[in-house]
Amino acid sequence: MTKTMLAALAAFALAPQSGAWRASLPAGVEVAEQGGRVTIRNAARVGADLWREGSRALSGTYTVRATLRKLGGRQHEGYGLIFGGSNLGTDSARYSYVMIRGDGGVLVKKRDGAATPVVRDWTTAAAVHPDDAQNRAENLLEVVVGPREVAVHVNGTEVARVPAAELLTSGAVGLRVSHQMQVEVQGFEAGPR
Question: Is the pLDDT of residue 31 over 70?
């Protein structure tokens, strides 16, 4: 197969996620969806997890991606993608996540109930568009899950690579938005690659 055919097949496999958005917090998180854009305002004092109700769990080899536009919030608060999720919205939630922030930092962590071990600590990556003077930025974030490794891309550039064994990789996908932030999401899609 040619590279063009492989790229076409990969694009075909990814699909927009459907269903109503659910949030891990009962209050403080507003979600508005219009014209393919989802705006999330987290006014709570803790981070929020968001996922599509009824979305299918993914396993094996797959990709999750979205364009994330930070509309407001402090520079050192992160936002990003969740993958490998189970029991979302409960005290026993389990998932892996990748976050970016306004100073160009990238973080890879996982959650296992109350425990949130750091897998790769905040590291500055030149590919991450930093906040402008109004604390706004736009970045395309992509997580590529494979059988042995998970690669993180920002704006088309690989910024992290982690052994899959260090993460939770089978389960639901979604978003993570830190407290006191507003983020617009476009093109949230996930599927086999």
Answer: yes
Mean pLDDT of the chain, nearest integer: 91
pTM for this predicted structure: 0.90
* Domain residue extents for the chain: 3-192
Q: How far is CA 95 from CA 33, 70, 78, in A?
A: 24, 23, 16
CATH number at 3-192:
2.60.120.560
Per the listing, tokens 């694009």 go with 11
Question: What are the C-alpha distances in Å from 45 to residues 29, 68, 105, 113, 140?
Answer: 10, 21, 21, 19, 26
Beta-bridge mates of residue 161:
151
Measured in residues, the chain has a length of: 193
**What is the DSSP annotation of 14-80?**
-EE--S-EEES-SSSEEEEEETTEEEEEE-SSS-EEEEETTPPPB-SSEEEEEEEEEEES-TT-EEE
Mean pLDDT within 27-48: 93
The pLDDT value recorded for residue 3 is 45
State the average pLDDT over residues 148-176: 98
- Dist CA 50 CA 89 (whole Å): 8
